[in-house]
Specification:
This protein is of the alpha+beta class and 270 residues long. The chain has one domain: q2cbj1_9rhob like domain (Jelly Rolls), CATH 2.60.120. Helix content is 17%, strand content 24%. The model has no long low-confidence stretch (mean pLDDT 95). β3 and β4 form a beta hairpin. Strands 1, 2, 5, 8, 13, 15 and 17 form a seven-stranded antiparallel β-sheet that branches. A four-stranded antiparallel β-sheet has the order 6-14-9-12, with no helix packed on it. A two-stranded antiparallel ribbon has the order 3-4. Bound molecules: 2-oxoglutaric acid (AKG). 2-oxoglutaric acid binds next to β8, β14 and β15.
Length: 270
């Protein structure tokens, strides 16, 4: 079973991110790439950077026709074990966003902190960003500002009314030093983990290579997914429906006792 080493856990805690030794085997990557192509084919009207809740099969109520294969990826016991190394033994899956940036015209992801958009209280989350294709400086890999998660501070974000961005919120200039950015270059099957407070973004993809990452979102069950909260409502540029978003308890128990694991799950007819 994959596990983060003590060194990897210490790196995540100190820097806000880590690139673990563990990676998906090539056959699994090939399978997921087919799943990705099918997902794109099934969502002709959706920009491939905005495939939100791709793990919720069929019409997911958030404008996307999702696929079971992304749910299976998010439930992968090895990935869940990695996450457990940094958020503890009680792990809740609540999101999966496919950020596929087509060659030549892939949207920029402005610098942001995820915590700004999410209804999790207390705010806590680990994102696993799984590369299904090579992700490099050339095609706009994820970039992070190391140690920006420290102190758990959310900085102001400004709304940007543009239609060539993955998100319409950008951190106000001056709240961090872009010169500190680290490029997280990944080979297919490799992944990075990042903390909910960490400042990150990605440049536009102007290269001739598509770039795809699947962002899997996990919170500890000591936090509550507050369905009535709608932070940055309607301003992110990605349509979400937190009120009906399904949650899965993948490991341990619901420590808060307040998370709802029934909402959003379809029951078989009859
Ligand atoms: O892949 C990207 O461009 C953005 C990913 C991101 O912002 C995230 O995973 O939180």
């Amino acid at each position: 079973m994959a596990r983060l080493s003590a060194h990897e856990i210490a790196h995540y805690q100190a820097e806000g991110w880590v690139m673990p030794q563990f990676r998906l085997p090539p056959a699994r990557v090939a399978q997921m790439r087919e799943a990705l192509d099918a997902l794109i084919r099934n969502n002709p009207g959706v920009r491939p950077e905005k495939l939100v809740s791709a793990h919720v099969e069929g019409d997911n109520g958030e404008g996307v026709r999702g696929s079971r294969q992304f749910l299976e990826l998010a439930m992968d016991p090895e990935i869940v074990e990695l996450v457990s190394g940094v958020i503890g033994k009680d792990v809740v899956l609540w999101g999966c966003h496919v950020f596929c940036k087509p060659a030549a015209e892939g949207y920029e992801t402005p610098w942001h902190q995820d915590g700004h958009y999410w209804p999790i209280r207390p705010l806590a989350n680990c994102t696993v960003w799984v590369a299904l294709e090579e992700s490099t400086i050339e095609n706009g890999c994820l970039r992070v500002i190391p140690r920006s998660h420290r102190g758990g501070v959310l900085h102001p974000h400004l709304h940007e009314d543009r239609n060539d961005l993955t998100l319409n919120q950008r951190m106000a200039a001056g709240s961090f030093d872009e010169a500190q950015a680290v490029d997280l270059e990944l080979q297919p099957g490799q992944m990075s983990l990042h903390d909910v407070y960490m400042i990150h973004g990605a440049k536009a993809n102007t290269s001739d290579k598509r770039r795809t990452g699947v962002a899997l979102r996990y919170m500890p069950s000591t936090s509550v997914f507050e369905r009535k909260l709608r932070p940055a409502d309607g301003k992110t540029g990605v349509a979400v429906n937190f009120a009906e978003r399904p949650l899965w308890l993948l490991k341990g128990v619901d420590r808060s006792g307040r998370n709802d694991f029934e909402v959003g799950h379809r029951r078989p007819a009859g």
